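Hi P.,

Sorry for the delay on this. The queue was packed all week, but I finally got your sequence through. Input first:
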Amino acid sequence: MIKNIIKPLDEKVMSAARQRQNDLLKPAGSLGELEKISIQVAGITGRVKNSLSKKIHFLFGSDHGVFDEGVSASPQYFTKVLMQLYGSTGGGAINALCKKNNIALKIFDLGVKNLSSCSGVNSSYKFMPEGTNNFARLDENNNPVRAMSVDTVKRVIDFGIDLVKEAKNENFDIIGAGEVGMGNTTPAAACIMAALENYSENLVGRGGGLTDEAFKKKKRVIISALERHKPDKNNSIEILSCVGGLDIAAMTGIFIGGAVHRVPVVVDGVISIAAALLASKIEPLSREFMIPSHMSLEPAYSEAAKELNIKPFLNLNMRLGEGTGCPIAMQIIDDALAVMNDMKTFNEINLESEYRKKIIQ
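Then the structure:
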């Protein structure tokens, strides 16, 4: 993996961007988060003025062995069906949102059962054809089964980093990432709980909807697996190997890649923020290149967001997945950049602004 080559946000450019925001024809700070977003993007790119001329979203499909424990309300073959829908007919929510907002959508099968080929889906990177192993099980020697090998984790993370490199070379200005895989809120919660070293059942959510009995079982499955594996909270590779998913590993690479190649990456819901948290453990500076979108209803999300010190600017009660928060957030980010680019300053219209020096900002 690529490490130790990430530089912090450009403080000099951010200072210039902050000054421009203060000089614009408005009370300083009056556009709130829009101002902060434009300043952050300036620090990422090294330019005060930016635009989202080209936007891209990566969608990762993968199945999860822990599904066998009854942690999902939907049948596992739905992963395959949805991937076919996204790729062939384009009838999913992420298709609609990307199309509406002129966002390129690239779909990858990382390990979906029984999906050999499908129009619009790239199956060249099928790291585990049957999906991950069931990390809740024990092997014949009574040792906990890992979701995937350490080598697989590293290869999938590198794959995510490489996707960002390709996107940067193709002049994309911003990246979103999402996933599909029945039961994937289970490995997401497990990864977050492992990274926080907090095995409280209060961090486990219902995902796509579970009965009370199935919800209790989901909690038991996650906590028991974590107590067996005991992954090091500071070792993201180990966490992913023990209780992760191929989708989470790929997005971990996306978030690291965003920092390496200085492209802003939008954080979606709980699966996405699990990857963001793990990326920050590998490369702490990567969090500076993340822009959170919406507050997920999954309880582990808010704890991960606190640890990352990021605050989502949308609360739409969304819990679909697919990275659907990313296209919506990109609209707002685009608006934030438009303000920075197109508003006039007091000086530009020769409007007296001496009074503003006395205003508490």
